[in-house]
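thread from #wetlab-drylab

HS: before we spend reagent money on co-crystallization trials with iron/sulfur cluster, can we at least see a predicted complex? here's what I'd submit
DV: go for it
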Amino acid sequence: MGRPLLVVENLSAVITTGRGPLTAVDGVSLSLDRGEVLGIVGESGSGKSVLARTIMGLHCSDPRFALSGTVKLDGRDVLGLEPSQLRAMWGPEVGMVFQDPMTALNPVKRVGTHLVEAVRKHQQVTRRDAVGQALDLLDMVGIPDPRRRINQFPHQLSGGMRQRVVIAMALANRPKLLIADEPTTALDVTVQRQILDLLDRLRGELGMAVIMISHDLGVVAGRTDRVAVMYGGEIVETADARSLFDAPRHPYASALLAAIPSLKGAPHQRLAAIDGTPPDLVMPPSGCRFAARCDAVHDDCRVQPPQLIFDGTHGTACHYPVNPLISTASNTSGDT
Ligand SMILES: Nc1ncnc2c1ncn2[C@@H]1O[C@H](COP(=O)(O)OP(=O)(O)OP(=O)(O)O)[C@@H](O)[C@H]1O
Ligand code: SF4
Ligand SMILES: [Mg+2]
């Protein structure tokens, strides 16, 4: 398959806050092949958006963010790029779709203007050609009657249609990687499903890799090749989607799945079923960050932070995993 499209190694993002340094992303490593879909799930505050934005290079010039580790996108060192190089990358290399389409759309600009600007940012084409591309993009994302829609303002579109426009903007320069950060949370259930189906279709048509971020397990179930579960700024479990859904090993992932009666056709199920609160990322606990909420906790869990240990391609950060494939898995990490 060749070199992975995205390689993230030991990535951390520490934010300066009024309470002290907050480690929003802590030593995250992951990789993504071309055309692959990775789901990142985790409850609110687990670091999903900071991770996504750091991968995009959006925090590079923010003095409040201290970044370490590496992000290589198609061989380029994202965290080392100049602002102009990052701007050149956003569009043809990586596109992003956020939760709320209105934040990506200027209310006083017509739909067509958004798309024409997105096209011309990276392509030396005439306005007429750019308008032609804008119409094609609207058609591609399933917006009926593009010739009428192109002249409308964002507020004249429904939430689902607006999100389709934002997706069209992200795809205007055919990125190799699309990062969708909770792209459907603001939409009602039926429209959510339509947008997810659209992303599935476009991924197939355009052959792009996708990182699909959600606190909604139903969104990633059945739509991703691999899944990474985040907790307290760390990846606590990662595996191909089937293994993770069939036999989760981290107690957090296991509890989340057990709390959902049926994953099939349930894109509105939320990761809110676990009692307790997430760790304070300004003062994280010294051992396992999930210890205070874990039914399987042992004394050593509170002292020794578990590392992400791989068994083939299935990684788990837990001293006492559920469903361990190898019976000694807990011993290798836990009896120290
Ligand atoms: N600009 C910022 N300034 C200070 N703290 C921040 C900032 N951005 C994120 N954080 C903190 O970093 C942690 C991770 O936030 P992040 O937005 O990545 O979580 P998330 O997993 O995307 O959550 P959600 O599901 O609510 O979107 C949180 O504790 C959050 O409060
Ligand atoms: S390391 Fe211990 S506390 Fe942490 S998830 Fe595993 S069993 Fe639970
Ligand atoms: Mg977020």
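DV: Residues 113 and 192 are 26 Å apart (CA to CA).
HS: ok that's useful, forwarding to the group
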